[in-house]
Structures are given as C-alpha cells and as structure tokens.
C-alpha cells in the first residue's frame, strides 16, 4: 500500500512539473507579447505616428488575450486530470484553482484594456484627433498674435484677428461635432444606448456642442462691436468733412465781411453773416447729436465749433446758443 502511494505521489509530482513548465511557457508568452506591443507603441508615439501606435496597442492586446486564454484552458485541463483523493491531490487542486482565478482576473483586465484601445483606435481613424490638434494649434497661434496687436495699440486689427479666429474655430468645431455624432451612432449599435461607452461618447458630443455655441455667441458679439466701431468712424469722418467745408466758408465770409463793413457798416454785415450760415450751423449741430457725448472726438470738435461760432458771431454769449 505504501508502495502504491509512493508511486502515485511520484506520478503527481512529474505531471505537476510538466504542467508547471507548460503553464510557465504560456505565462512567458503573455508577458513577452505585452512587452512587445508596449515597445512598439512607444516607438510609434515618439515618431508622431499616433494611429500606428493605437493599432499596435490594440493588436498587441489581442495577442496577449489569446495567450492568456490558452493559459486558463491549460490550467483547467491540468486541474481536471488530477487523480486520486489524497491530501496532496486536494492541495494541488486548490493551487490550480487559485491560478485559474488569478489568470481569469488578468484576462478581464486585458479585455478591458483592449476595449479602451479600440476606442482610441477609432478616435485616430475618424480624424477627430487631427481636428482637435489643429483646433488647439490655430487658437494658440491666433491668441498670441491678438496679444501682440493689442500691445502695439492696434485695437481694430486685434478685433479683426479675433473674429477670424472665432470663424476658424466654428468651422473646426462643426467638423468635430459631425464626426463625434457618427461615432456616437456606431457606439449605440455596438454597445447599446444604456452602456457606459455610449454615455461617455454622448458627453463628449455635448461638450463639443457647448463649445460651438459659446464660440458662435462670442463671434456674433464681436462682429457687432466691429460694425458699431465702423459706423462711428464713418460718422466722425463725415463730421470732419463738414468742418472742412464750414472752415472754407468761414474764410470766404471773413473776406466778404471786410468788404461789406466798408460799405454798409458792421451791423448789417453781422446780420447777413448770421442769416447766411444759420442753416449750415444747424446741420453741423445735428451731426453732433449722433455722436456719444463721452467721445474724445466729440470734445475735440466741440472746442473747434466754439471757436468757429465766436468767429462768426463776434460774441461768445451768442455762440452759446448753438452749443450742444
């Protein structure tokens, strides 16, 4: 009896050793395939090939999963082939079960990593990664240029550049939105609308839509400011031209006044001047009503008009009647 037990123990030991060697080789295959794809992914990322890196990771994880599944199958096979009811057999059975549980946990982790790798691969293939990279680069370059223009006191040019940036961002974000919308539809078909993957993709889509709305609002607001500034500049330009014409008329009138004073006297000449320019002064006054009272241009031209009215009327108090 003792001899039989000794023989069985020897057979168990030999079988266990052979199984251990086989399982060890499978474990080495899992580890080596994992190290291989990690090295390949790192190399491709360093070279800027993000699509190739994502593909290498996805494929490498697939190989690791396959080897891990073989390992679990081998462990289960060895466990099922244990013979006898000795304490040693029971102990070996428990060891196999522990290894199976650990290998199954590792397999679940690898499968989860591959699902994430699949999302990354689809992200790269969709062109979304390139769009977001372009979006970031364009905004950074434009913002730097806008800061420079403002520092140089070129506010109008800075606003135009900012508006150009907004328009470019809107175009890019529209493309991102359409791409993410297509990705969301694929996720819905593959994983269902109640899956975590669908929820995360829907969140990304909503974030892009929010950014797009904010950018559109900012562009509309800035465009309104630019148009208002252009209208104000145009109005001031017209006012300047009116002053030039008035100045010319004032010079001509001064010459005529000197002649009239010599013939008819100062009183008649003053009345003639007043009647002759009343309409012109009224037109200028109307233009002032269109300019904001706090404008620096307004203050400048108000001073000019005071001097003009004093010249025409010869009386500061009379000139105040025309002040705004």
* Number of discrete helical segments: 9
- Main sheet makeup: none
Question: What share of residues are in beta strands?
Answer: under 5%
Into which percent range does the helicity of residues fall? Answer: over 70%
Through-space gap between termini: 127 Å
Q: Structural class, from helix and strand content?
A: mainly alpha
Query: Which spans of ≥5 residues are poorly predicted at pLDDT below 50?
Result: 1-17, 263-270, 291-295, 318-324
Radius of gyration: 43 Å
Mean pLDDT comes to 78
Name the shape in a single word.
Answer: elongated
- Helix-strand sequence: HHHHHHHHH
Strand tally, please? 0
Descriptive report:
With 324 residues, this protein is an all-alpha fold. Among the domains are: 126 residues; 85 residues. 90% of the residues lie in helices and 0% in strands. It contains 9 helices and no strands. The N terminus and C terminus are likely disordered.
List the helices and strands and how they pair.
Layout: H1 2-46, H2 50-80, H3 87-126, H4 128-151, H5 155-191, H6 196-263, H7 266-288, H8 296-313, H9 316-320
Helix pairs in contact: 1-2, 2-3, 4-5, 5-6, 6-7, 6-8
